[in-house]
Amino acid sequence: MQAVIVHPGAVEKAVRARSAARHMKAAEARRAILPSKTMAPLERLAVYQGMYPLRMRDALEADYPGLAAFLGHERFFDFVLAYVAVHPSRSYTFARLGDHVPEFLRRTRRFGPSPFLYDLARLERAVTEVFEVDEEGSERPSRPPRHVAEDWESRRFATPPTLRLLAFRHAAGAALDALKAGKRPETRPHATWAALHRRRYSVYRLDLTREEFHLLGALAKGRTLGAALRAAARACGKPLSPRAVTRAFRIFTAEGLLREG
Amino acid sequence: MGDRFGLPDLGVGVGLRTVHFGHVLSKAPEVDFFEALTENFLDTGGRPRHILDRVSERYPVVLHGVSMSIGGTDPLDLGYLKKVKALAVRTNARWVSDHLCFTGVSGRNTHDLLPLPYNEETLRHVVSRVKQASEVLGQPLVLENPSSYLEFRSSTMSEAAFFARLLVDADCGMLLDVNNVYVSSVNHGFDPIIYLDALPADRVVQYHLAGHTDKGTHLLDTHSAPMVKDVWKLYAHAIARTGPRATLYEWDEDIPDFATVHGEAKKALKYRPPLASESRVDAPRRPARA
Fold first, then answer.
1. How far is residue B81's CA from residue B192's CA, in Å, rounded to a whole number?
2. What is the complex's ipTM, to 2 decimals?
3. pTM of the full predicted structure?
4. Where does residue A177 rank: exposed (0-12), middle (13-18), buried (19+ CB within 10 A)?
5. B269/chain A closest Cα distance in angstroms
């Protein structure tokens, strides 16, 4: 029964497919189900078969609204069928269904510009992850760093447990904003960086410069400010200017991304 | 007509849905109880869990699941059951319910409520699993009759007869969805009154009410509309047999504003008495046993 329900073809084709016939021959399947006054056995089975892909589509669309908007109704539905054929739900919750979407899109060009879709899907997956993350203490108001100049190099900071840092080869954040506004996004490569975090149970995206991304990443790993600045300089190929550091700290503090360590 | 397992009549409630979160928290509407969809709150530490915590502080809550697969052939997912139990404790859920169905095989979840063949072999299988689930949950499992769109030739008894024996043999409760009885009765051609009369009244813990869609060749349980008159008649018949039981209205597609859904739910008060205010205060807040 399950093999027929999850088969993407018509029910007559589905019962004859190898995946179903392995368990029960088509003629036996017809005999196993009683007809009703209005429907033949396989028509009754088709009610379940018809609902399966719609349910999968609704679940994936909830987690990937930008991807769904970019692909459009028909192509997104094709994507859903192809995706769940490879990655069917194996969890009690729909929340896990889309776990493999970014990787799935990275490996195929069938649904559009693969590297762009990969970035877009990674961003949407991360939004869901930050929204769901189970961290009881993460909603506490942050205590901003104190301003003490003399020990700055050895200072460490804590970052919120919901913080996620993402580097993209495309402007994934701007693309998602455009898609939500009903506009076509820019799909050409353009390196961007972003931080996601949660405050009062809402997810926020902060677009970062390359320097800010590496500095915040090093601080999030627990490095001292001095070590973090050196790590960011190495990653960027040049030291961060005092102005860039000041700007970065103003943003991180205002967003509540740094706490006293 | 006593309350099976001592579980209280919670009055008339509404399913807790995302689109109503803001209204429920800000307006604190006078609702007797809420039913939360278990799986939506199991693995989230974000806003849904926060909302459910706030709701369970103010209202009685029951948990209603769709993924236990009590009729399935895969082993019961003990990790899942333990999480359900933890959520029940956290929310002080008055009971935990799921459906008489299977949801998939070989580790796969179709996220549908697939029907079972109703025969002695299936009964033995399901009784054993209900006992196991109740043991892990630390309280009697409550099972809902699903709406169904096909019947198996290998069935040797009606769904109602199967349920009647299951409720006694597995010592569990029933969540009687009268709309599902109606949908299945039309799809399979049986008399819904005979179905209701075959059930042991003292095992019914809760009622579900909902709307369905007529697809021409069959009825589909869509939860997308007001409940039709014929189903209200079934509810009137059933509740006259069982006495007042917790009654909940489900609306899951094209969900209107909260007042409209609550208004539909309150139509049940034509057939059952309102929850007395002292009952509301004194309703036993029994947590799931640790």
1. 33
2. 0.91
3. 0.92
4. middle
5. 34
